[in-house]
Structure formats: C-alpha cells, structure tokens
Amino acid sequence: MFNRRNLIRLIITAVFALLSLGFVPEGWKHLRVVLPALSPLLSLGGVVATLTVSAVTLLGLPLLLMPLFKGRFFCWHLCPMGFLAESVGRLNRWNKGGANKVPFVGKALALLVIGSAAAGYPVLIWTDPLSVFNGFFAVWREPLTWLSAATASGFVLILLISLLVPNIWCHRLCPLGGLQEMLMRLTKCRKTRQADEPETALEKTRVARRVLLGMAVGGLSGIVYGGFKKRRAAARPSPTAKTPKGGGRRRRRRGTREVSVPYIRPPGAALSIFNALCARCGNCMAACPYGLILPDLGSSGIDGLFTPILMFRSRNGEQEGFCFQECTACTKVCPTGAISSLTREEKQQMAIGVAHVCKGKCLAWNKAEYCMVCQEFCPYHAIDEVERDGVMCPEVDSSKCRGCGACESQCPALPIAILVSGREPQLRLAAPSPYLTQK
Amino acid sequence: MKSIKRRSFLKGTAAVTTLPAVGLTVKAEDKPSATVIVVHGKDIAKMVDAGIAMLGGWGAFVKPGMKVAIKPNVAWNSKPEQGGNTNPELVRAFVLAAQSQGAARIDLPENTCHDEKSTFPTSGVEAALKGTKARLYRPGKKDYQAVEIPKGQIVKRAHVPKDILACDCLINMPVAKHHGGATLSLSMKNWLGSVSNADRRSWHRDGLHQCIADINTFIKPKLVVIDATRILLTKGPQGPGDLAHPDEIIFSTDTVAADAYAATLFKKEPFDVPHIKIAHDMGIGCGDLKKIRVERIEV
Q1: What residues pair up with A350 in beta bridges, in sequence order?
Q2: Does the domain formed by A236-249+261-437 have CATH 3.10.129.10?
Q3: What residue ranges define each of the domains in chain B, with the CATH number in brackets?
Q4: Are B207 and A369 in contact (CB < 8 Å)?
Q5: Could you report the per-residue pLDDT of A417-430, keeping only the tens digit for each?
Q6: Given an 8 Å threshold on Cβ–Cβ distance, is A377 in contact with B113?
Q7: What is the pLDDT of residues A213-251, one digit of tens each?
Q8: ipTM of the prediction greater than 0.90, yes or no
C-alpha cells in the first residue's frame, strides 16, 4: 500500500483537491476549471452536443489520446477519484473480488453519453468521476448548509460503493474508465491487468455491435429527453410578449420563444440543454463570490437535480446578494460549456431573468411608504418611478431588467414584494446597460 | 417625544398663544438660528481650508490624540465623476488635516450597498486614503453596538458602528444626490449607510422619513460637510444619471440647515423633502431657509 506509486497518487489527489477547494492565488480562480475539463467525457459531450470547441474543451484531448498509447495509465496512476475509491476499498476486509461478476457498466455509460450528445442532448454526463470528485471539494464554503453541500453526494456514494465492493467503481462502473477501455482496444495496446489472448473475429464484431447499440440507445434517449424538455418548455407562460432578440451560440431550435421559468440559471447558460450538459461539478457554485449559486432540488425537473440555480436570498434570511454587474466568475469555470464564458460587456447585456412587483405586498403601492429600495439598487435602471399621491412607486421595465436580483435581495417588505423569475432562453436586451459607458 | 414638541413650541412662541402674536414673535426672532457656509470653487483642498477657517479653524474640531470618525458616502460601485459617492479628494483633504492635527485614529466605517471589494477601489476613496492612517472598512457584526434611541418616535433601537459611538469628533460627509425613496439623499440620510442592514430594512417599512429624523436625534456629528461638487439629479442614489456641477462644498454644524440649503441646489423647497420638515419640527435643527444664514465664499 505505501509504495512510491501510491505516494505520487496521494500527492496528485491532494493537489487536485486543493485546486477544487479553491486554494489558488487571487486572479487565478478560473484555474479550478482544469480538473473536470481534463475529462474527455465532459469535453466530448460538450463539443458534440453544442458543436462548439473552446480552449477549455481542448483540455480533454490529452486523456482522449492517452489510452491509444498507454492504455488506462490515467486510471491506475493519475486519477484522484480512482485513488480514493481504491484506498477506501482496501478498508474492506470481508469481501474481495465481487467486482468482476458485474458487467462493464462504465462502457455503456460512456456510449450513452456520447450517443445522446450526438443527438444534441447528452444524458448522464454527470457520472464523470472527475466532476464528481470536483463536486465534493467545491462545496466547502461559508455558510455550509445541507443544500449547498448537495453536490458532494455523488462522491460519497462512489466511496460507499467502493467500500462495499472494492474496485467496482474503477473496473466496472466508471464511464471515464469505460471510455478509456474502449479507446484502448482501438489500438493493439494491451496493458490491462487481465491476461489477454488474441481477439477473434467474432469478438471484434461483437464489440462493434455493442458500440453501435450503445450509441443508438444513447442517441434515442437524447432525442426522447430533449424532445420532452422542449415540449415542457413550450407549455410555460411567457413573461413578456416580446420575441427574443439574438440567440446564444447554440443553433436555434423550434420553440425558442421566451418563457418564464421558476429557476434562474447563471449568466451564459445554454438553457435548452442545460440539465443535460451540466456535469454537476460544482465549479460555478464555488466560483460565485456572493454564494448565490446553489444546487437545484427539483424546480427545473428531476433531470435538473443538483444543477446550479441562483438564489438571491437564503431561506433563513441570513444571506443575501445579487448577480453583480462587474462579476463574470461563474462563466469562466464551466468544463462542458453548459455555461459559456462571458465578457463583462456580454454579461451586462445578458438577461437571466425578469423581476415582477407584487403590488399587494409592495410597501409603496400597498402602504404608501417611501421606499424604492429596488430602484435604488437596480444597476440597470429597470425600475421606473410612478408617482401616486406624492409617493414614488416601483414599476419594472422588462426591456431593461436583466434579472440580477438586486431588487429581490434588498426588498424590505415582508414578505418580499419583488421577485425575479428566470428567462428561458437568456437573451441579450436591446437597451444598453448604463454601466457599459464606464470602463 | 410629545414633550419636546411642546417645549420647542413654547420656546418658539415665548408663551404667547394668540395667532397674530405668533406672527410677531417670528418677526422678533428673525435673527438666524443656523449658519451654513457654502464654498464655491474647483480646488477641493483650498475650499476645505476656507470653509474650516470660517468655522474657527481645525482646532475647533480636532485636537491631538482625538479619535476621529468620518462618515463619507461610499456605498456604490460608482466612479468619482459619476456622483454616486463622496468626492475622494474631499475625504482625503479631511483625513490629511485630521492627521496633521494629531488625531490618534481616523475611522471611516461604511456599510456599503455594493460589495466593498469593488466599491472602495471604484469610488476612488481607497486610493485617496493610501499612505494615510485612516481606516476605511465595512463594519461586520462585531463592529456594531445596539443602542437605545430615546427621542426616536419610531426607531427605539438601532445598531450603530462602535467607532461612530466612541469617537471624539464625528464628521458627516455625504454627497448630495437624488433618491427615489427619500426624495434627496443628503446629510441626515447618510446615517442609513452606517446602521446595520436589518435596521435599514425595517426603517423602509416603518416610515422612512420619520426614521431618518429619529436616527438624527441620536447621532450628532460635530460637523456636516456636504459634497456638492457634482450632484446626481436623476437615477440616484446609485447613478449613473444626469449630473449638475454646482462646485460647492457645504459646511455646517446644523445637519438640518445643511440639508435645507442643499435641497435648493435641486430646485426644491426644503420642506418638500419630508425628513427635513420632520427634523425641523422635532427640533433637531433649523430647516427654515429664512432663519438660516448662508455665507458664501469664493475660492
């Protein structure tokens, strides 16, 4: 156990853990994207589903090529999740070798991911071990709640499985391992632990058939899931009667009219396929300097479990904040392109939601109080002043509102009288942000 | 509170109760009850020197070894020329003067509205204080102290930064600007940038203008300096909005009088701003322009 190889693996794991925890110098915070982005599963899923290549997705290339020459070298020597799963498995003294009786689920998972990504809607991308590892270490922050720590659950689950059945994760379940195993077989490189005999023609066709079948099932599930999501989105009410101006980088699909949704995604989110593309790595949640991004527990559907949503006020009222106009932290750390990188200008033009005043709760409308805190805080001048009996009352101009949540986070009314709902898709507003005039 | 009203009323009318007689007493009391010094110019340091000289020099405010607290308005992520925050040069002029007077400490607690990590640099105040011993900071939970406001009508308790409570010389240094809720944000309103967020919030619920007046019965600065070098006429208090450039700095020891004068820069009658009217009626200061002596200095 305590040999040189494991010492190196321990060091690598520690370095990656520190990276995921955010121990990087100020100004280099976006480096946390590196670990999950190393996984070819995430980058392949992202690239195939969105048909865009970025510098981040290119990070997955080395691990895509490595198995062709070195087999599963990454799994046995470098992978931090693998090291931890294996180490936990060593604690198990009562059950050894149950793993080999299980079929190689990981291969099927990898094929599902890639096949469904090809259909435009990658499913199960969140099973990637590097994003699961990252998801565990990214959640440690103030204040730590059950909700904010939810993305850590995948990691705990893998360790539990590994404790019960040692090595089952790396050898049988891991989709990244499965992908590398399949890639390895493309070349004649044989560095597996199993004793290998030459492959027969029959076996070759069997492998090809399995790959085809996996991809087909993946593609089918992608089409079905994606279609389901689209139908549900089309059934939602529109917050404004306007047609959206300009789309994201994604190709347009049918039914892109703007709808109002109960959840607010980080700016730059590719909404139509967000639940699929999001790896649940926790990077955006950890990157947000205001702690606004939390895992969703179902408002975006069961397939949106643990995806990031913005909450401008925590339930106990202890924490409040809004998506600050000068900040682009969360857009710089997404490994799959579920959240695309935005510049300061792009972020300030991007409407992620729209605010609504509930006049029955509003201090100004309902009780004729001098308040206007929403207008005071609105960075985009989206709150109009309406005078009523000498008291100024707020009205939201949805053509300027970007859904940053400044109003919601500060509203003094009990209960809160101004609430932001998400816009789907996010869109660039025609009215320029007043902040774009300043440097 | 009722007793104060009665007292001030009695004082004002000198026990005369009939209506014509009240008119007479006002005439008899025509001598100003507050002084506002308005310095017009471009060179902030010289304007400050001129204004302070009129008030009796720095010695009247800061003595060696004193703890000085300044409450600028540095609430927003807004650049100096946009008028959302107090002019950094003005803050620096005061800090340097206090330092040369031998102040032991100079604290600038500011409960910013935007993240202080971007607000303090963007406002230019952080850079202006570089090399001085002044400490600009956002008070945390431990920096606050709960206090009773005995004369408050609505506000009975508030959380005020300890440095403001414990200082020997308190200077209120707001910027004059438009405000959706408070009509204008001047010196009295500036204390909302000092108290805790919970206080701020409940005051908006319970009658903002009365609460502004209430906190001013408790926090009594030695000097009020209103930055009117540039004023936000619209889209306040955050901006960016339409600006006017009166190029004035307003000095007074009477916070209500200073606000009353500053309101005229916005072409407003002081008593059209409810909290000035309330503060005047409560006897916190004089908001009646007829009773305020305005001394103008050109630098």
Answers
A1: A428
A2: no
A3: 1-30 (no CATH), 33-298 (3.40.50.11440)
A4: yes
A5: 999 999 888 888 87
A6: yes
A7: 887 887 887 777 777 766 666 665 554 434 344 433 333
A8: no
